[in-house]
Amino acid sequence: MVTSYAMSKETRLLNLICIIGSLGFLVMILWVALTTNELLSTDNLFIITVCLVLALAFAINPLLYLKSENKLPIPFLKKSVDAGQAPARLPGQQAIPSKNPPLLDAKGRAVPPDVGALVASFGKHERTDA
Fold first, then answer.
1. Are 110 and 103 in contact (CB under 8 A)?
2. Can you give the pTM of this predicted structure?
């Protein structure tokens, strides 16, 4: 328990340092944009680009940490069907015992139960060379 608390404390500190660094580079971009006479000069565009890249480099670690903790919602990402949920069955259909996670199509949706039964029946037969 002590090591996980120390690790979370270190992770919080490192994420805080990364966020401060990223915000510092964004503030530098604002400062350059507000204090220069000619914004679209080669030097200013170079400084802004470098600061944006460095801000992204510092921000990526805290963002990935939030994603791994499921605290960062990703808007266009669909969640897959949990392995614990049984697929919907029609009346009269028997449940297919499944030890594997549910079968998904190309778009990440669960396949219908009859297709799952067909795939399961194909997997039962041994392959013979003719």
1. yes
2. 0.55
d(CA 50, CA 32): 12
Asked whether the beta carbons of 110 and 81 are under 8 A apart, the reply is yes
39-82 pLDDT, tens digit each: 889 999 999 999 999 999 999 999 999 988 888 887 887 665 44
Q: In sequence order, what are the residues at sequence separation of 6 or more whose Cβ sits closer than 8 angstroms to the Cβ of residue 39?
A: 33
Q: CA 63 to CA 67: how far, in whole Å? A: 6
CA 20-25-31 angle, to 5 degrees, is: 120
**Joined tokens for residue 27:** 């503030």
User: Distance between CA atoms of 78 and 119, rounded to whole angstroms?
Assistant: 24
CA distance readout (Å), 30 to 44, 45, 47, 86? 11, 12, 11, 53
